[in-house]
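Slide 14.
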Amino acid sequence: MFKKEFKIDNTWVGHDHPSYIIAEMSANHGQSLSRAKELVYAAKEAGANAIKLQTYTADTLTMDCALAHFEATGPWKGQYLYDLYKHAYMPWDFHAELFELAEKIGITCFSSPFDKSAVDLLSQLNAPAYKIASPELIDHQLIRDVAATGKPVILSTGGATLAEIAESVKVAQDAGITELCLLKCTSTYPAPAESINLKTIPHLKEAFHVPVGLSDHTLGNDVPLASIAVGGCMIEKHFVMDKKDNTADSFFSMTPDELKALVHGVRQIELALGTVHYPSEPSKARRCVYAAKDIKAGEVLTESHLVQKRPGGGELMPKDLPLVIGRTAKNSLPRGTQLSWKDLL
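Slide 15: predicted structure.
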């Protein structure tokens, strides 16, 4: 049985809690430890809950082979996958220092492992959670390896059919994972808004009874902000210090200013969503029934005696006028009196 809410470090994840915001470092460290640390500091300053790494090497992801099917596609076309990953991966000896820095300044740090050796490294660092990237959703053994850590798991669904998602969720459940969050994802870089289909978020929540969020590859903040409005409880978005940085993912990543704006926007939307609420008292910005002129006790009221005007707050509403006409005034009523039933016979 999956939990509807759980903690990563000391922060709650779930639909009844503030949205969990992850800055995805990905390849934007540029294989520079100082730049990676700069990203950790910037994510913290912008208000993100977590900074996320990726733990792989070229050899754990692909083969050093020049056959045509090893060529990269999309924005990375023109190079082989091995060369792409060789220049994009984070040196593994960076991990310990980044985890230590994150703990020191008070931001959660975790990673996406891509094989068992990566899980082992992250386990040694006591990673508080694990993210399984969209392409690895079909790697059931990786799910089992992550399950063995006993930590919360975030599973991204880009490119997966509903049947594949269901199969992987079942593997996770059978492996003992009870703290699982799914992320709706469109594996296009950058992804156009019309490809996102945010209505899938509540469908995933209903289908699997787990927290659901968005792993976003669009440009700007419109789509991730909208994901909160449709019920998402987590946002993951790639993060770079400067879009001019020449890294594999910089062209679709957000800057520190954009991350700060995203965090602010999410918190404002959460405040605006609030709860189911209706006013318990009528608004004074509406009309009520007034004496249009001085009325003597014993006078029979006609339309000329009555008017509906602002401010509201009186007992008799405009809808009551037909019931008031023809009644007799019990008391003298000066012009401008808010009428009530006790004034009438």
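Speaker note: The two ends are 66 Å apart (CA to CA).
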